[in-house]
C-alpha cells in the first residue's frame, strides 16, 4: 500500500516538493520550539516516509540526519530529494528497514535525538517494543521527541468531535480497505488494505518510562494538520475547531531523555 502511494505523494500539492526545495522546512512551530537548537547534533527519524521532515532538521543545522522507513520507494524518493538539495549521504542518509529492526539497519548505534513525527505510531501493533527500540537508539545525554495525533480524537464522532462514539481503550486491530490517500483522496489505487492500532496516551508514556527514558514534558495541542472533523476550519496554518467550539487535544508532543 505505501509503495504504491509514494509516487502519488511525491507528485502531490500536499507535499509540494517543488516548494519544499525552496521552503526547506516542513516542521511545525511547536516542534521546533520544543526540540530546540539542533546545530551540530545527530538526529534519527524513525518512519520518515519521503524525508521532508528529516531534511528539515538538516536545514536547521543538524550535523547528520538519518531517516528510516520500511518502504523502499519512499527511501529512494528521500535520497533523491536529499541529492536535489545538495546533501550527500554523510550529511543525510536514508535506509530501508522495519522500525522494530532499526538498531541493525541504521549506520550508527545511537543518536543525540531520536525523532518520530505525526501519523507514525498507529501503524505499529506493539508500542512497548517500539519504545524499547527507540530508547536503545538514544545516546546518553540525548532524548527522544515524539509528536503524534492525539488518541482521544479516534473516540469522537467525525462530524463535530463532541460525542464519544468509539471505545478509547480498544486494542483490536482496525482493518481498512479504502482507495486514495490523504495526499490525494481521489487517486485511483489498487493496494488499499491497511491495518492500524490505537495506543492510549498512558500506553505510550508508560512504555517509554519502562524503557528507561525520563519524560521531561507531555504537551497537548488544539490544532491538527488535516480536517479530522467535518466542522474544522483553517486558521493560522492549522486545522482547528470553529471559534467558540469546545476544544479537545488534537496533537500531543513529548520529550523523554536518557541519562
Describe this structure in words.
This protein is 26% helix and 24% strand. It has 8 helices and 11 strands. It has helices at 2-10, 17-23, 29-35, 52-59, 72-84, 102-105, 127-136, 201-210; strands spanning 42-46, 64-69, 92-96, 111-116, 138-149, 174-177, 193-196, 214-221, 233-235, 238-240, 251-257. The strands form 3 sheets. A 7-stranded mixed beta sheet has the order 3-2-1-4-5-11-8, with helices on both faces. A two-stranded antiparallel ribbon has the order 6-7. The protein starts with a helix and ends with a strand. The model has no long low-confidence stretch (mean pLDDT 97). InterPro entries: Methyltransf_25, SAM-dependent_MTases_sf. This is Class I SAM-dependent methyltransferase. One of its GO terms (biological process) is methylation.
Task: Sum this structure up briefly.
This protein is an alpha/beta fold and 259 residues long.
Amino acid at each position: 500500500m505505501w509503495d504504491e502511494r509514494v509516487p502519488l505523494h511525491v507528485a502531490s500539492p500536499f507535499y509540494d516538493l517543488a516548494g519544499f526545495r525552496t521552503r526547506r522546512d516542513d516542521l511545525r512551530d511547536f516542534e521546533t520550539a520544543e526540540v530546540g537548537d539542533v546545530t551540530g547534533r545527530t538526529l534519527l527519524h524513525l518512519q520518515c516516509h519521503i524525508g521532508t521532515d528529516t531534511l528539515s532538521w538538516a536545514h536547521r543545522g543538524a550535523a547528520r540526519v538519518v531517516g528510516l522507513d520500511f518502504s523502499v520507494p519512499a527511501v529512494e524518493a528521500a535520497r533523491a530529494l536529499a541529492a536535489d538539495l545538495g546533501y550527500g549521504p554523510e550529511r543525510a542518509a536514508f535506509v530501508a528497514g522495519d522500525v522494530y529492526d532499526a538498531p541493525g539497519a541504521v549506520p550508527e548505534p545511537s543518536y543525540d535525538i531520536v525523532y518520530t513525527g505525526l501519523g507514525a505510531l498507529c501503524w505499529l501493533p506493539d508500542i512497548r517494543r517500539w519504545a524499547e527500540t527507540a530508547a536503545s537508539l538514544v545516546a546518553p545525554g540525548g532524548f527522544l521527541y515524539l509528536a503524534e495525533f492525539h488518541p482521544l480524537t479516534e473516540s469522537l464522532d467525525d462530524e463535530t468531535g463532541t460525542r464519544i462514539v468509539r471505545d478509547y481503550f480498544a486494542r483490536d486491530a482496525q482493518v481498512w480497505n479504502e482507495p486514495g490517500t490523504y495526499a490525494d483522496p481521489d487517486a485511483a489505487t489498487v493496494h488499499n488494505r491497511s491495518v492500524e492500532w490505537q495506543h492510549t496516551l498512558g500506553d505510550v508514556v508508560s512504555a517509554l518510562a519502562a524503557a528507561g527514558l525520563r519524560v521531561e514534558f507531555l504537551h497537548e495541542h488544539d490544532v491538527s494538520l488535516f480536517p479530522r472533523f467535518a466542522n474544522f476550519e483553517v486558521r493560522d496554518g492549522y486545522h482547528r475547531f470553529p471559534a467558540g467550539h469546545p476544544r479537545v487535544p488534537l496533537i500531543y508532543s513529548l520529550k523523554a531523555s536518557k541519562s
